[in-house]
Write a structure and sequence with these properties.
heterodimer, A: 278 residues, Sufe protein. Chain: A, Arc Repressor Mutant, subunit A, GMP Synthetase, Chain A, domain 3, 3 domains, 3-stranded antiparallel β-sheet, 8 strands, 46% helix, B: 393 residues, Aspartate Aminotransferase, domain 1, Aspartate Aminotransferase, domain 2, 4-stranded antiparallel β-sheet, 12 helices, 13 strands, 39% helix
Chain lengths: 278, 393
């Protein structure tokens, strides 16, 4: 059983503005019987470009009906320009949220609105011109890219929840993954790829640790009248002993973790753990 | 959901059933005072072992089988997996399984995985069904080969109630030296079954489909059929299924089987009559509605009807307001985006598949309830159609 908000239930059980406007200023017809949901949205727009009336006919589940109903309430009184800015998130939010598997219902609402506005303006929607990626539900790459950008989608599963693409036979999954990768890398820089931990023999490790201690760490400690000695290296555990002023310093633990360990991890091996000799 | 509806018209018995009051009464002592382990040496545990033994006898009686042919499991799915995987382990050189396109996910997913997860080590033949959900026997005959390890065909389909000729199919498999398994979860308690006379090697059943609680099932393994356990462990169930017995539920299953035997005539008489009345009432009072599945080769309690141009989830939620419980084969109710694989295999058009509703009755349903549903449904469908862009009514 789906977890629907009260608002969804209210709009489902008492849908507003059901029907079709006679001689509408714009019509948006999206979805199909095969897909399992479809929406026909008709708008009446006055000379001042204000939407004065909106009606819908929907074939679909409770969230599809509720999305359509709440959309008609939202747009009435808006200018066409304002209405064009409504996103699917706005529709879902107006319903107090939708289950994630049902987000495509809000997307359908937005698509119908866009189509109706394009019809009013006498334009052809760019979305329909893209290349069909998902044959089962007739979703184009343009639609997928847009959903990824607008709703910050980060997985194929999320793309399916929002656009239905990939929800049928699943053959387009690889293509969707590729679109996702390309789109995401265009939006922002990819997170820095972590360098794979190097494999080192114990001898290489000890030599390198000694080198870093001598070059990077000792000079600083010696300035304060202290020193450090390498006691042992056991796997990733590096056992050290602090000398001189460092030995009695109450901050010795901080020195080891924050300074010595950090430097060794940075310059020798990511996985090293530095501990003081008991 | 924490609240329980005041008035519930429960017509979703292929999903699960009400636990019979007689069953609860029988199982209660094994949840309270009689808590011994049936494997124990002392009398306190021994009496519990005795109850398990009696229950095994009752299950066997309903199936026309011997008690030693019955192994208790945790559910129908476990029984299905145990049978099919046992056959594959018994005949490791055989790499072919025959099943149908309309199996329950318990068998369907296992077969899909056998194919894909093993890197196509196994070949699966999925038999087609016609528009009434019936199998083509000549296709089946051609599918059996020397490489076939097991055939797994459900006795009755959970969505449409269509009954498959498993007796005949098992005989054909036996003649080819192929093992035969049937998922009889929907059939047990509704159809007369006499395994002694049949060539069925494995049969799965589930407690909660016949008024026992959830979490208990059984697997029939014909005497002489080789068996490799699915769950290994202790020596319970004669070494065929490890794990301490779910005693209370096993006792419940025995009692439920006993009751099912007694109520079989009512199931095929009064329940069937109610189902027919519901079916006729809905088809007559709702325009553009149609029956899914064969008219007569069908379980006595099941009717699956498509209401064209409307969507199943929306129908169910409206029914829910009246306390009417049923199921739908629509995409939206399953969490997937495609409608039921059973209806698609039958070639039910999309206009109808999305709007399919399954009503499944039990001995607890009344004529008043049927009248209530027939009274409420036309208005529900009409209101949704009035909203549908495809409805030109």
């Amino acid at each position: 059983m789906w977890e629907y908000t009260d608002k969804v239930q209210q709009h489902f059980l008492n849908p507003q503005n059901v029907g079709e406007i006679d001689k509408p200023s714009g019509t948006g017809d999206v979805g199909s019987l095969a897909c399992g949901d479809a929406l026909k949205l008709t708008l009446k727009i006055n000379d001042a470009d204000i939407i004065t009336e909106a009606k819908f006919k929907t074939f679909g589940c409770a969230s599809a009906i509720a999305s359509s109903s709440v959309l008609t309430e939202m747009v009435v009184g808006m200018s066409v320009e304002e209405a064009a800015k409504i996103t699917n998130e706005d529709i879902a939010n107006a319903l107090g949220g939708l289950p994630k598997e049902k987000m495509h219902c809000s997307v359908m609402g937005r698509e119908a609105l866009e189509a109706a506005i394009a019809d009013y303006r006498g334009l052809i929607l760019p979305m329909a011109q893209g290349e069909v990626v998902c044959e089962c539900f007739g979703v184009t790459d343009m639609e997928v890219i847009r959903a990824i950008k607008e709703s910050s989608l980060r997985s194929v599963e999320e793309i399916t929840n929002f656009t239905k693409a990939g929800g049928g036979c699943g053959k387009c999954e690889d293509k969707l993954r590729e679109i996702l990768r390309n789109t995401v890398s265009n939006i922002s820089e990819l997170p820095v790829v972590k360098i794979k931990p190097k494999r080192m023999t114990s001898l290489q490790k000890i030599k390198k640790i000694e080198e870093v201690l001598e070059r990077e760490i000792r000079p600083g400690l010696r300035k304060d009248g202290g020193d450090i000695e390498l006691v042992d290296v056991d796997g990733d555990f590096v056992i050290v002993s602090l000398r001189g002023a460092c030995k009695s310093c109450h901050k010795s633990q901080t020195t080891i973790k924050e300074y010595v360990e950090k430097k060794l991890r940075e310059l020798v091996l990511e996985s090293l753990i530095v501990e003081e000799e008991n | 959901m924490t609240t329980v509806c005041e008035k519930v018209v429960y017509m979703d018995n292929n999903a699960t059933t009400r636990v019979a009051p007689e069953v609860i009464e029988t199982m209660m002592p094994y949840l309270t005072d009689a808590y011994g382990n049936p494997s124990s040496m002392h009398t306190f545990g021994g009496q519990v072992g005795d109850a398990v033994r009696k229950s095994r006898q009752k299950v066997a009686t309903l199936l026309g089988a011997e008690p030693e042919e019955i192994t208790f499991t945790s559910c129908g799915t476990e029984s299905d997996s145990s049978a099919i995987l046992s056959a594959l382990r018994t005949y490791p050189e055989k790499r072919h399984v025959v099943t149908t396109r309309v199996e329950h996910p318990a068998v369907k997913s296992l077969c899909d995985n056998l194919e894909t997860v093993t890197g196509h080590k196994y070949k699966i033949t999925r038999l087609k069904v016609d528009s009434e959900g019936m199998l083509d026997m000549s296709e089946y005959e051609g599918a059996l080969t020397d490489d076939t390890a097991i055939v797994s065909v459900m006795w009755a389909n959970n969505e449409t109630g269509v009954i498959f000729p498993v007796e005949k199919m098992a005989r054909m498999a036996r003649q080819q030296g192929v093992l035969f398994h049937t998922d009889a979860v929907q059939a047990v308690g509704k159809l007369d079954i006499n395994l002694k006379e049949l060539d069925i090697d494995f049969l799965s059943l589930s407690g909660h489909k016949l008024h026992a609680p959830k979490g208990v099932g059984a697997l029939y393994i014909k005497r002489g059929t080789l068996f490799v356990p699915f769950l290994t462990g202790g020596h319970q169930e004669s070494g065929r299924r490890g794990g301490t017995e779910n005693v209370a539920s096993i006792v419940a299953l025995g009692r439920a089987c006993e009751l099912a035997g007694e109520k079989m005539a009512e199931e095929n008489g009064r329940v069937k009559m109610l189902r027919d009345k519901l079916e006729e009432g809905l088809l007559a009072n709702v325009p553009k509605s149609m029956l899914n599945g064969h008219k007569t080769h069908r379980l006595p309690n099941t009717v699956n009807i498509s209401f064209e141009y409307v969507e199943g989830e929306a129908i169910l939620l409206h029914m829910n307001r009246h306390g009417i419980c049923a199921s739908s084969g629509s995409a939206c109710t399953s969490g997937s985006l495609e409608p039921s694989h059973v209806l698609r295999a039958m070639g039910v058009p999309f206009t109808a598949a999305h709007g399919s509703i399954r009503f499944s009755l039990s001995i607890y349903n009344t004529e008043e309830e049927v009248d209530f549903v027939v009274e409420k449904m036309p208005a529900i469908i009409a209101s949704l159609r009035q909203m549908s862009p495809f409805w030109k009514g």
